[in-house]
Amino acid sequence: MRFLTFLFSACLTTLLLPAADWPQWRGPHADGSSDETNLPDRCDDSTRLWTTPLPGIGAGTPAIWGDRVFVTAINRDTAMFTVVCVDRATGAVRWQAEVGVAFHSQHRDDLAAASPVCDGERVMVTFGNGDLAAFTHAGEKIWQRNLQQDYGKFTNQWIYGSTPLLHRGLLIVQVLQTNSDTVAATPRTTSYVLGIDPVTGKDRWKQARPCTARGESQDAYTSPIPFVRGAKHEVLVLGGDCLTGHDLATGVEVWRCGDWNERRANNWRMITTPVVIDGRVVMCTARGNRLIAVASHEDGTLQPAWESKELSSDVATPLVYAGNIYVLNGDKRLLACLNPSTGMLNWSGEYTSSGVVRSSPTAGDGRIYALSEAGEVLVFANDSFRLISRNALESAGPARASIALAHGQVFVRTSDHLHVFARRSSEGN
After folding, report:
1. What angle do CA 16, 21, 26 make, to 5 degrees?
2. Which domain does 183 fall in, by range?
3. Is residue 16 a part of any domain in this protein?
4. Is residue 429 part of a domain?
5. In this prediction, what percent of the chain has a pLDDT beyond 70?
6. Residue 394 — very low, low, confident or very high, per pLDDT cuts 50/70/90?
7. How many CA atoms within 13 Å lie on the side-chain side of 408?
8. Which one of 246, 297, 308, 385 has the lowest number of neighbouring Cβ atoms within 10 Å?
């Protein structure tokens, strides 16, 4: 009887465990994966819970915490950068707040490309004009600042679009940008990384992040991610033809590797963010040139583990899921699965889609989800190459947000709509 009581309690506890949130762009594990189960294998009217029109366009991935969904947009009516809170159950807008002026009147720019980040108390948003702000979950503004006012005008050839990282009580923001080859760098033009107190919005540290790359190759549209080496908590920053590791508490650069741009080309801007698996950092170099894994050893040293010149990506960040690395090359319409220890190919396949995929793939419940610029949701199997479904959604412009998975639901943000899907109770496993 005691055993049966224990077994019943254990099962009940398992059933009552809360489903995971999706607090930032690459999800709860910072690698695109989710532990969610019972997710739908298609995103169409048969699985749609609701669709909510947003006040304007944007490319940021939704952030989900509890019963709230946070998204950003460029408000087409007010020409203002806006943060929106949507009720997860109904799709009703709970509140929206303006952050700053969106200075392209056509509303066709992508200055709302960065994704929100959140914890149990606040949500933080950033935009391409340098505005950075924090709100309570009820919509009250906590603080706001502008990075260009603080540290000088952004010098990226294209727009600034890095998403911050919220990790261990610190908000990490990177600005990797061009210094002129003919003008000496100054503190207001050098690339940098910030560690910001999420409660006050004030800097805890600022770390210069120089590089030897030339021209546009200094620019990066990557985002910082966490990295643990032994007992050390670090932040990874990729761009400027190098990967650097920074001490989380101080921002000090503790190691770097790189020099993959052998020709010293001046147009090797980096877009994809690294991922971490089993102590290895896996990253795509500029323009999908190659896929590289760097191993971290117990003594703290790092060295190249393997590389592939055949399988890589220029825009979509790799995915870690079920012990494998998945690389989606949107330009070639190719999805590949690799062994993270050796780099050996497990399988690959070419798919058909309406529009190129610029979003990064996400995975949960044995499925891989991706969104094309045309607003088409692609669902793949994860154990072998198989395209399970393709479903077109409404999108007024290019859809570039990654798909979020939380609370048994699939969140798809097209250009100006937020769609949510879930498996119906009558749908089989």
Report:
1. 145
2. 21-422
3. no
4. no
5. 90
6. confident
7. 11
8. 297
